[in-house]
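Proteins fold reproducibly. Look at a sample protein:
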Amino acid sequence: MKDATIGFIGGGNMAGSLIGGLIADHVDPGRIWVSEPDGGRLRQLADTFGVNTTGNNAELVAAVDTVVLAVKPQSMKEVCAALADAVQTKRPLLISVAAGIRIDAIQRWLGANPAIVRAMPNTPALVQCGATALCASPQVNNAQRETAEGIMRAVGLALWLEQEEQMDAVTALSGSGPAYFFLVMEAMEKAGLALGLTRDTARLLTLQTAFGAAKVALESREEMALLRQRVTSPGGTTERAVGILQQGGLETLFAQALTGARDRSRELAELLGEQ
């Protein structure tokens, strides 16, 4: 993967995070290209990372063997249509990180059935702690799969899905997931304030507790339920708090919330694909 030439169409936050992760993973900046209409952003990326820059998407496609489509979903059809000739000539691997855009839509806009990997990273990728699910079109070979996985592993966990239909569930779970945890942390911080803690104390204790719980879970092979039970002494404070949360229907609410997010993901995919 370190020998790959990689181009990013779109130089926003996600592209910047991926570029930073790749360079930290010892990919030569001279093998990375970025195309972006904002000249100021291009200069910033060039100054920060030493990568090649251009304002011409077709020029970028001609220079690389892997193209990361990092544009907004609503811009994807226009970008792909303008790139169709260049892609059909060069036949690069295409990696889309645009939420909600299905592989068949990209293939329809580009023509000639190109090799496409669809990736769904989440926002913690911005701090190299992301979770990314990937799925590939039949045209993607094993070497290209390794390249795509290597790029996304530069900013965190990357795993493959058997079916693209599972991407809607991934969107509901990990794509939207950071917002759920921010909501829980927000509620805990507010409760700590109401119990008499200062704002700084409530915030720091909330954040460190969330970080510590996640780290324990990541480093353990035990089920979440068992980890919870181990910190829930019979008749203690945690048991009472957890009982109140369960009586309030927390698990049912999360099930309903993720189902709603999955359904909305499907709806948006239909809308974006019909543009």
